[in-house]
Design a protein that fits this description.
Layout (H helix, E strand, L loop, with lengths): L2 H21 L9 E8 L5 E8 L3 H26 L6 E6 L2 H15 L14
Parallel strand pairs: 2-3
Antiparallel strand pairs: 1-2
Helix pairs in contact: 1-2
């Protein structure tokens, strides 16, 4: 399958899954889940869905457990909505990009010299 088509399909899968999570699932474990990206294999046998949520490690584990429990329901609903021949197996993984970005920001803040307050400029008058 062409790369551009896979990218469009990944975006459509992401939109549909977000809609399903908001409207169809009543599991409180997935209430604050945000899908950040979808990566499907070219043969559409597998799709890796990157997720993030507010909260700490306990909320993360709970959200992933909720998504795992709803995986087959979500896959079936995707098949009905997308009208594609093969609906990929869904794999939900934690997106660590935000945590890595926060860590880099904090490291940069530690090595960045403190900013000097602006000097009072003489008035032009």
């Amino acid at each position: 399958m062409h790369r551009r088509r896979i990218e469009r399909l990944n975006e459509q899968i992401k939109r549909e899954l977000m809609d399903l999570l908001r409207r169809e699932l009543s599991d409180p474990r997935v209430a604050n889940v945000t899908l950040t990206a979808v990566e499907s294999t070219p043969d559409l046998y597998h799709a890796r869905i990157y997720v993030t949520t507010l909260g700490g490690a306990e909320e993360r584990e709970s959200a992933l457990a909720g998504l795992l429990a709803a995986r087959s329901l979500l896959r079936g609903q995707l098949g009905r909505r997308l009208h594609i021949r093969r609906v990929p197996e869904l794999e939900f993984v934690w997106d660590e990009v935000l945590e890595q970005a926060r860590r880099i920001e904090s490291l940069l803040a530690q090595v960045r010299p403190p900013e000097a307050p602006p000097a009072d400029e003489p008035a032009d008058g």
